[in-house]
Automatic annotation (TrEMBL):
Region (Disordered): 42-89
Protein name as annotated: protein-serine/threonine phosphatase
EC number: 3.1.3.16
Organism: Rubroshorea leprosula
UniProt entry keywords in alphabetical sequence: Hydrolase, Magnesium, Manganese, Metal-binding, Protein phosphatase
Amino acid sequence: MSCSVALSSSPVFSPSSSFFCNKTSILSPSAETLNLTLTHLKSTSSPSSLSPSSSPSSPFRKRIQKTPSVSLLSSSSPSSLGSGAGFGPGSVLKRKRPARLDIPVATAMAFAAPLMESQGCREMESEGDGYSVYCKRGRREAMEDRFSAVANLQGDPKQAFFGIFDGHGGSKAAEFAAKNLDKNILDEVVRRDEEEIGDAVKCGYLTTDTEFLKEDVYGGTCCVTALIRKGNLVVSNLGDCRAVMSRRGLAEALTSDHRPSREDERDRIGNSGGYVDLCRGVWRIQGSLAVSRGIGDRHLKKWVIAEPDTKILRIKPDHEFLILASDGLWDKVSNQEAVDIARSLCISVDKPEPLLACKKLADLAVSRGTSDDVSVMLIQLGGYVLSSDLYRIGHRANL
């Protein structure tokens, strides 16, 4: 089945999970069975073809003698096919069953959807005021990563919102989050005091998750976002997208990946009635998902929460740039290595080339064997330092 191929190619989602065990088996009919069925349907146009005393030379009888049928259900009993199917008890021969596929029907259809979409672009890139982003498709049929970039937020050049969204089980959740998360966060920010900005971001994430679940589609997405407002950098994440800042050339991770291998995440899942086990070298929730937080993932929503971790810091002159990227990069490139490559093209040159830096990082991950989509966004932080902060720093230096 094409749906099993689509599922197994994802490093995040595993279809052969114990979470889906004890479901009704779905066996694909063989070409022989379908051929037999079509032959029988043609023959039923003649009343004589249904007679028990059909001649041995009848084409339909010859077909039955040559080709044993296969049950379309998990039961091996001939009667399980039902009289309506047109197979009599004597026409069904036992045959070795194919391997069991423990894939729920609804999930299989939903996760196979990306294969039916247009092949789409292999690359996406964009540059704007203070940011550059580059996305490169992995080995899947369609890109599941998305990004969001809103400079001059609310008409203020010192405010902006940026995000990287790494979808799994399709791109629907990533698309939805990229279109709606910034608006939902801003709606909460304007209602609250500046001291409550962390709570505002959290509510924006939870609202986006609730709204997506109402869409009644499958899949989920990891996220990492950066809200720049009044000289503050507010970084939040779900899953294994990551934010890394360059502070005078030193890499500083501002987020921590949410994975079932983390002891605190494993304890949280266990306390909620779930479990984490090791599947082919990867820790997964219910043997299925390799990240423990995200937007969407309705079938695991009890354990895959949408509550982000948030870090707030004041932007200072020694904060050079911020890298937001999906795990397609971080699984193959270290934090410091990413900063070194980006800095060589953005800081230590007369003509900065941040988009080229994003491309070089993505290409490096691909050259090291990643099969995942790779999305890299680079945000220059120098333009967001408030003049009042520059004055205070300069005043202290003179003292």
